[in-house]
C-alpha cells in the first residue's frame, strides 16, 4: 500500500461537515470509515459514497468504545445546531465527553492522530473581540447552551490532558459558523432557515433585532483547513480557530438571502434566545501563519451555492 494513503476514521461522518470530509479524503485516495449513529446525520449525505471501494459506513454511537485500527481520527460526532443539541441536553454532553474519551483511548492505544472538532461556542458570549485562541471565553455553565459549550470545553480538556499524560497525538480546531450544501433544512440554523424560508416565500424569522453578528465560513474552505490542520507537526496541537473573519449582522444576512433568492418574503422579529452570543468573529492569525490557510469563498458565492442546493432539495430533485 502507498505509505501516503491513510486509513481514516470520521466519527459523525454522515453529518454536514463529516460527509464533506469523507468525500474530500476519498478523492485524495485515502481509505475512509464513517462512524455515525444517524441521529442528526442523514444517509443521503453519503449515498454517492456507499459504492466506493475505499468507503465504509459503521452505524454505531461514538459513546460505545471503539475497536478499529486507523492512522487518523476526525472526531465530529455531536449534534451541532442549537435546536438539535438542546433537544436532549444530557445526550449531547455524553456524546461530547464519552465520545472524546473513546476516540482518545483508541488513538492512545494505536498511535493514531486524533483531531477534535471543537467550536467557537467554547468562547460563549465573548467579551473579547475578535476571538483569538488565547481567550478563555465567557460561558454560562448552567444555561441552555451549556450542554454543548461545556461538553466541547470538557472535550478540549480531555484532549490536552491525554496529550500531556500519555503523549497522545492530538489536534484541536475551533470551528466557527459554517454553511453550505448538506445543511439540514430543519435543524434551526440561521443560514438554512433563512434560505428555506426565502425559497418558500415564508416569513424570515429574525431573532432579536438581528443586530447580533456571526462570521460565516463556506464548507469547502473549512474542509481545506481541517486537512491542513491534521498534517501539522505533532508539537502543533492547537487549539486553532477556523472560520471566515468577515462579520455580518443577522439582519444583513437576511437581506442578502432575500436579494440572492429574489424572494418576496418579509422579515419578522421575535425574542432573542437565552445566552445567544451578541458578537462572534474569529481571529485566524494562527491558521494563517501555521497552515497558510484562509477562506477563499465570499458570502454571496457561498450563499448562491447553498441556495442552488436547497432549490434541488425542496423541488424533490435531490434526496433528503
Ligand atoms: N437566528 C435567527 N433566526 C433563525 C435562526 C437563528 O435570527 O431562524 C439567529 C440566532 O439567534 C443567532 C444566529 O442567528 O443569533 C446564529 O444562529 P445559529 O442557530 O445558526 O447558530 P449559533 O451561531 O447561534 O450557534
TrEMBL record:
What InterPro entries does the entry give?
Epimerase_deHydtase, NAD(P)-bd_dom_sf, UXS-like
Q: Which organism is it from?
A: Burkholderia theae
In this record, what's one Pfam family?
Answer: Epimerase
UniProt xrefs under SUPFAM superfamilies: NAD(P)-binding Rossmann-fold domains
Q: Which residues form the NAD-dependent epimerase/dehydratase domain?
A: 8-243
Lineage here is: Bacteria, Pseudomonadati, Pseudomonadota, Betaproteobacteria, Burkholderiales
The cofactors named for this UniProt entry are: NAD(+)
What keywords are annotated for this sequence in UniProt? Decarboxylase, Lyase, NAD
According to UniProt, the name of this protein is: UDP-glucuronic acid decarboxylase family protein
Amino acid at each position: 500500500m502507498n505509505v501516503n494513503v491513510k486509513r481514516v476514521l470520521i466519527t459523525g461522518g454522515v453529518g454536514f461537515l463529516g460527509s464533506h470530509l469523507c468525500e474530500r479524503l476519498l478523492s485524495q485516495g485515502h481509505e475512509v470509515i464513517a462512524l455515525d449513529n444517524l441521529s442528526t446525520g442523514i444517509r443521503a449525505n453519503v449515498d454517492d459514497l456507499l459504492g466506493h471501494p475505499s468507503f465504509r459506513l459503521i452505524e454505531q454511537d461514538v459513546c460505545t468504545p471503539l475497536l478499529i485500527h486507523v492512522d487518523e481520527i476526525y472526531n465530529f460526532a455531536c449534534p451541532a445546531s442549537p435546536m438539535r443539541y438542546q433537544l436532549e441536553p444530557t445526550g449531547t454532553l455524553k456524546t461530547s465527553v464519552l465520545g472524546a474519551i473513546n476516540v482518545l483511548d483508541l488513538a492512545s492505544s494505536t498511535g493514531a492522530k486524533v483531531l477534535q472538532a471543537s467550536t467557537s461556542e467554547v468562547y460563549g458570549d465573548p467579551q473579547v473581540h475578535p476571538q483569538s485562541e488565547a481567550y478563555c471565553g465567557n460561558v454560562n455553565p448552567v444555561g441552555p447552551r451549556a450542554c454543548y459549550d461545556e461538553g466541547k470545553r470538557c472535550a478540549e480538556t480531555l484532549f490536552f490532558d491525554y496529550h500531556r499524560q500519555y503523549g497522545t497525538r492530538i489536534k484541536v480546531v475551533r470551528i466557527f459558523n459554517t454553511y453550505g450544501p448538506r445543511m439540514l433544512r430543519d435543524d434551526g440554523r440561521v443560514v438554512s432557515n433563512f434560505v428555506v424560508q426565502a425559497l418558500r416565500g415564508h416569513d424570515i424569522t429574525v431573532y432579536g433585532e438581528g443586530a447580533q453578528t456571526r462570521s460565516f465560513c463556506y464548507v469547502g474552505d473549512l474542509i481545506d483547513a481541517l486537512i491542513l490542520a491534521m498534517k501539522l507537526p505533532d508539537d502543533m496541537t492547537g487549539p486553532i480557530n477556523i472560520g471566515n473573519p468577515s462579520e455580518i449582522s443577522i439582519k444583513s444576512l437576511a437581506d442578502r438571502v432575500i436579494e440572492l433568492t429574489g424572494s418576496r418574503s418579509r422579515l419578522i422579529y421575535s425574542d432573542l434566545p437565552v445566552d445567544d452570543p451578541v458578537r462572534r468573529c474569529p481571529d485566524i492569525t494562527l491558521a494563517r501563519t501555521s497552515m497558510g490557510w484562509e477562506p477563499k469563498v465570499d458570502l454571496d458565492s457561498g450563499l448562491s451555492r447553498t441556495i442552488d442546493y436547497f432549490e434541488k432539495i425542496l423541488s424533490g430533485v435531490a434526496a433528503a
